[in-house]
Please model this.
Amino acid sequence: MDQIIVRGNGPLNGEIPIAGAKNACLTLMPATLLTDQPLTLTNAPRLSDIRTMTELLRSLGAEVASLQDGQVLALSSHDLNNHTADYDIVRKMRASILVLGPMLARDGHAVVSLPGGCAIGARPVDLHLKALEAMGAELDLRDGYVHAKAPAGGLKGAVIDFPLVSVGATENALMAATLARGTTVIRNAAREPEIVDLAHCLRRMGAQIEGEGTSTITVEGVRALGGATHPVVTDRIELGTYMLAPAICGGEVECLGGRIDLLAAFCEKLDAAGVSVTETDRGLKVSRKNGKVRAVDVVTEPFPGFPTDLQAQMMALLCTAEGTSVLEEKIFENRFMHAPELTRMGARIEVHGGHATVHGVSRLRGAPVMATDLRASVSLILAGLAAEGETIVSRVYHLDRGYEKVVRKLRGVGAQIERIKETPAHD
Ligand code: EPZ
Model:
């Protein structure tokens, strides 16, 4: 397993290109299962999660060609020859559950392994299953798999009332509804930009959808969907992550392709903390307003609230802010695993249940730390950029799931960072 070594090296200056959104691409790719026509995705990110989704779709018989160094994905599900998403692949990536709705909608049957939990929480899929049952699916849970069958005439439109906002369940229901007979109304739908991007792509394929980006999405089912070419929306989480680099280190960085509308709540928090964000014709320019960063309180919420996927990174900033900040994690039950690692770097953090209280310190000190999950891994790198001395982050395979070319992008703005093969642990 590789390690990343970071040395605090003062202010960062320059520009960082932002890639296409992992969490949009992971729902756009299964959309190929809704049609026998070709689907082409451009601006695709080069990430291990995308390679895992490619492996899964190919295991079902779909063709997935990765072109232009992985930035273009040409998908076709003309000849699906397997309708079972195997545990060996699903356990690597929870988003695999997103093949269930499309396969059920087009071919009337699917067998998908239950994803199981992950480091940040139990992450059940009960809402995905309830939505599909509302559309007439018969589901049988056995041997760790969901065995799903649609009624003889196919799924039927339904009113789906989600008791809590779920990005993935909204995506599964939305994709299934495009081919269901009649009208589907999804209430308390997730409003994330990745949902909006999926709806835009499905509409290009011939779907009839209204209300994406609001809490109520209405879908008129159609008999069949066609192909399309669709650009993956900018990754707002990668964007927010790199916006924090000049916030933590000082200097000025322009994040190319960034848009404020993708991260309004996050940008408001940065402003309150003393970090200025300016829209340019190429993206977002970020710098500290006048030296110090001030403590702010953060509560994670579904979009348009503060994104849970930026909570760990924001905590890294607040570790060296003036004053005390309280972060409340309301989406996942165990998403503070970066706190003990930041504490090893001299941060003062008290975690009680879903709350983390951060007392700012003047400077963090580099230390060997361990990545525990995708977003925690990058928060440790951000902390290392500002820390005195050397930080060695191990288990960086977590990072590769969601961030392409981290070392190159950060070196491009003056960071002292390198990736090395991990030395085997001494017995
Ligand atoms: C998506 O996960 C993202 N992943 C996550 O990003 C993100 O943190 C999350 O949405 C919230 O924004 C992808 O898009 C691939 P949810 P998802 O369903 O869809 C509970 C990252 O770092 N829930 O919105 O799995 C669930 O336990 C990842 O890129 C149920 O109870 O999230 C959680 O507490 C991490 N039953 C809450 O809802 C269900 O059936 C929100 O989960 C589904 C979810």
About this structure: The radius of gyration is 22 Å. DSSP finds 14 helices and 24 strands in the chain.
